[in-house]
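Researcher: We plan to redesign the surface later, but first we want a full-length starting point. Tokens attached.
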């Protein structure tokens, strides 16, 4: 049986052994999921492909999974579209993107080949090449006959062919372009730009972006697009080698600037983090049907710390809610797509509430949206989630030091402070789901993963000194169906 048929058969036969899925965040039907791929709007439907390892709950044997939706929320699982089954991608169909051409959806991805499969990889023997496929309505992808379409011969001297991946393709006028992550001659990250008339023949344009070698960073999953009157690069950043600081891990940055296609240079104006939580990586953007730039990311955990839980659930990996991106004075601000509003059932609402101690926010269901408006934060305020007798995930807003303190006692420990301007009108939104939480504070997003089985289900807000909450609403998220 071919690898694609085997994967689809395996899912069908084992699906009922999985459980504990999020209620309104996307998760794979079974097995392992990492990066979103080929996120696109095509033929009146949203498509979400993703890095998918059907047979294990950890990263292995990477295929492309697939789901479709009318609204980016109610996803329907579709058959697996690609398996690592050709000479160009035999060790994995790595990340990539989608683009429409002549009424068809094309997928461009990285074919990973490692002759030491399953054993310690040897960098010099690994090759990553860019491949093309055409999505067909019967649910599979026809891989292009002339794959790979960009290979090591298209890479200028001294760039590393073993770290050369994650094509994000886009169109400008009559031309197709793609940005790719690579390690340059200094063994640091660079973003390369390629150009094509037909998606099959590609030519090298330039090395458009790199940082000082002392930064020790390598970029993955680049994305380049226009937002308002600026160009934006999104980069998932990893340390160049494991000896470098943990702080670099799981950082996703945006860089706002101007892309000069004549000069092949991205001119940086400013940059920032796209997410301030602990579990966010490899996001990808698309334009929605209304022309908004929407980004979806992987709620990541590379560690095996949660093995006990995820083995029991039979799947590992969740996506964030799709978020609309906007620019505000050079800063990116994020909010969940408006479609979320259609799924909110108001449970309680209050105006001008004076907080004296603990206020229980909602009962024992996890599908909640909590929204607070505070015109002037004068007291320390905490939002306490998943509270049981000994553990909790909490966010503490401290106006005296202008920061949000993030804490979790669960398996993925969190203990950090993020500087945040709390002196203005505060719009705080919290989305709680089965194993993940998203916090939004005036457009800053924070993502957390918590697979623990013994999580408490109670959510509180707490403040001692009579903090005034101008508006509070607690809703249940209803009728989101992911199947
Ligand atoms: C990011 C990443 C990509 C790669 C993929 C492999 O999480 O490392 O760079 O294409 O995962 O699954």
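Model: Full-length starting sequence:
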């Amino acid at each position: 049986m071919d690898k694609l048929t085997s994967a689809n058969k395996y899912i069908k036969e084992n699906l009922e052994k999985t459980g504990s899925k999020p209620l309104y965040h996307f998760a794979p039907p079974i097995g392992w999921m990492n990066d979103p791929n080929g996120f696109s709007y095509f033929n009146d439907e949203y498509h979400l492909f993703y890095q998918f390892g059907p047979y294990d709950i950890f990263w292995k044997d990477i295929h492309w999974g697939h789901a479709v939706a009318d609204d980016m929320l109610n996803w329907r699982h579709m058959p697996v579209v690609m398996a690592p089954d050709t000479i160009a991608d035999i060790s994995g169909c790595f990340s990539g993107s989608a683009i429409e051409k002549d009424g068809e959806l094309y997928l461009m991805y990285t074919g990973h080949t490692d002759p030491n499969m399953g054993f310690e990889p040897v960098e010099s023997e690994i090759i990553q090449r860019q491949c093309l496929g055409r999505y067909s309505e019967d649910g599979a992808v026809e891989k292009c006959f002339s794959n790979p379409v960009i290979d090591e011969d298209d890479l200028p001297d001294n760039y590393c062919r073993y770290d050369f991946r994650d094509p994000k393709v886009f169109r400008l006028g009559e031309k197709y372009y793609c940005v790719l992550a690579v390690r340059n001659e200094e063994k640091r990250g660079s973003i390369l730009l390629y150009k094509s008339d037909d998606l099959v023949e590609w030519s090298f344009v330039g090395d458009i972006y790199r940082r000082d070698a002392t930064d020790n960073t390598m970029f993955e999953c680049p994305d380049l697009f226009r937002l308002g009157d600026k160009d934006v690069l999104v980069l998932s950043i990893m340390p160049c080698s494991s000896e470098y600081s943990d702080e670099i891990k799981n950082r996703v940055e945006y860089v706002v600037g101007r892309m000069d296609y004549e000069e092949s240079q991205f001119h940086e104006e400013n940059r920032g983090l796209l997410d301030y939580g602990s579990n966010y990586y490899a996001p990808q953007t698309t334009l929605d049907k209304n022309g908004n730039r929407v980004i979806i990311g992987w709620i990541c955990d590379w560690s095996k710390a949660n093995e006990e839980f995820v083995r029991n659930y039979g799947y590992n990996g969740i996506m964030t809610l799709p978020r609309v991106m906007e620019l505000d004075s050079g800063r990116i601000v994020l909010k969940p797509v408006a479609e979320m509003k259609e799924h909110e059932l108001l449970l309680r609402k209050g105006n001008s509430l004076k907080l004296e101690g603990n206020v229980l926010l909602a009962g024992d269901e996890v599908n909640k949206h909590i929204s607070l408006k505070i015109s002037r934060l004068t007291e320390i305020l905490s939002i306490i989630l998943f509270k049981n007798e000994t553990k909790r995930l909490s966010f503490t807003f401290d106006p005296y030091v202008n920061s949000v303190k993030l804490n979790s006692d669960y398996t993925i420990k969190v203990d950090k402070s993020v500087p945040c301007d709390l002196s203005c009108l505060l719009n705080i939104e919290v989305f709680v789901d089965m194993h993940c939480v998203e916090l939004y504070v005036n457009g800053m997003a924070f993502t957390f993963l918590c697979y623990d089985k013994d999580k408490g289900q109670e959510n509180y807000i707490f403040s001692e000194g009579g903090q005034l909450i101008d508006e509070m609403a607690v809703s249940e998220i209803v009728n989101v169906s992911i199947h």
